[in-house]
Amino acid sequence: MSKKTKAWMLTAMTLAAPLATGAFVAPTAAHAAGGLISIIVNDPANNYWLTEGKVAQAEAEALGYKATVGANKGDTNSESNLIDTAITNKSVAIILDPANASGSIGAVKKAVAAGIPVFLVNAEINQQGLAKAQLVSNNAQGAAIGAQEWVKDVGQQGNYAELLGAPSDNNAATRSNGYETVLSQYPGLVKTASQVANWDRTQGHDKMQSMLQAHPDIIGVISGNDEMALGAIAALKEAGKIGSIKVGGFDGSPDAVAAIKAGELQYTVLQPVAIFSKKAVDEADEFLKTGKTGASAEKQLFDCILITKDNVGDFVAPFTLKQ
């Protein structure tokens, strides 16, 4: 196992270490009987969110709870309906990947008003003090290491394109800004095209096609997530340019890892979704038992790790590296 991998695992374990915080709240009768934890992810058609839901559900059931997984698919109305269902079903806690940084605040407030603690994973909301915890990848750190690797791959001269995630998700802007912080240090690299592809592979493909038509001279594509990057790769294959235009991703999905092994994707930035999804359930369990989450702060950042052809063999399961 590489030194980087070991360092990342040590960081993850440190972040997972419990630190007491929060006021005491007596355990509920529902928890004493096990109770239901409602898990709401974005879209399980994306393997990242599928893993998020599976890991959280497995941990909840291992701790003696019942668990259900629903999908808001990035829609706040669907999310609100799922929160209503969680309230009706007398959930003892909700694990939520919010659909919208601002638009999901109302849904969280509704759950809190019903006396159900909410634990956010992967994405944050633009209000502190509502959720008991917000567990997210360190997107700025991940974007920085991704951009640094991207420069190594494409060089320091030429025009490039960017694929951006959903504007309603703060992660999209954080990653794009992180890329810009690094790439702006290289005046020979010029961003001549950028398109929003909403984290989606099909949109990534279609937006890549349009950018190629308008800017056939680009030398690389930097993407806000793996799905958009994989869509871009498909478009580059169709155009016969997969060998001349280099693509970087973000998430650490199995498909991205396969693309790295195939020499089609230069790198991906692994988000430790399997770690923080499990940790969110553990914190919910701790809160229900003691009134404390066990974390030192509401917002908790989990460092990402770079996966390239050099360490791709350390990838052993969805969003997991060898320990």
From TrEMBL:
Its main location: other. Pfam families: Peripla_BP_4. It comes from the Bacteria. The keyword Signal applies. This is D-ribose ABC transporter substrate-binding protein. GO terms for molecular function: carbohydrate binding. Keywords: Signal. InterPro entries: Peripla_BP_I, SBP_2_dom.
